[in-house]
What we know:
Largest sheet: 2 strands, antiparallel
CATH architecture: Up-down Bundle
Distance between the termini: 28 Å
Amino acid sequence: MGRMWSGLVAAVAVLALVVAGVALLRDDDGWMPHRDAGAWSMSGGTGYGAGGGMAGAWTADDEAGFLREMVAHHDEAIEMAAELSRSERPAMRALGVRIVSSQTAQVEQMEAWLDEWYADEPADTAYEPMMRDLSGLSGDRLDRTFLEDMVGHHMAAVMMSQRLLVHGGAEHDEVADLARTIRTEQAREIRWMSARLSTWFGVSAAHGRMMGCPGLA
C-alpha cells in the first residue's frame, strides 16, 4: 500500500510539474529565458501530431520495452528537431541543437544497453508517428507547428518515464536514472516551449483535457 501510494503521489507531482507556470523557473544553464506564464494548446488537433493521439505510445512497464519504445520515440524527436536549423529564431535553433545532442546521446546509450542485456529478445517496436511533417514549413509555421507537436511528444516521454518508475520496471539503476533524467529534462523543455507558444503565438492552455485524460488541465 505504501509503495502504491508513493507511486500515485509521484505521478500527480509530475503532472503538476509539467503544467505549472514558469514564474519560478530558473535558467541554470543559460539556454532558457526566465519568463512567466505560457501554456500549451491541444486545440484544433495540434499537439498530438500525425498519429492523431498518444494512445499506445507509452505502454511498456518492463525495462526492455521501455528502452525500445524510447529509442523509437527519441528518433522521431531527433529527426524533427533537426528541421529547426531552418528556423529564423535563434532560440529555436538552439532548442533544436539541444534536443538533437541530448537525445542522440541517450539513444546511443539505450541501444548499447539493449545489445548488452536484451539481444536475444524480439526487437520489433511498432511506432506511430506523433508529429507532423515539417519539411515544407518555414518561418512562423515551422516554429509553431514544431512547438505544438513537440510539447505533446515530450509529454508522452515524461509519462513513459514515470510509468516505468512507478511500476518498478527498471531492472538496472542506470535505466532508472535515465528515466528520471528524461522526465526532468523534458518537463523543463515543455515549460519553455509552452511559454514560447504563449509569447509568440498567443496560444493559451486547453481546458479540461490533457494527454487524453479528462479532468486534467
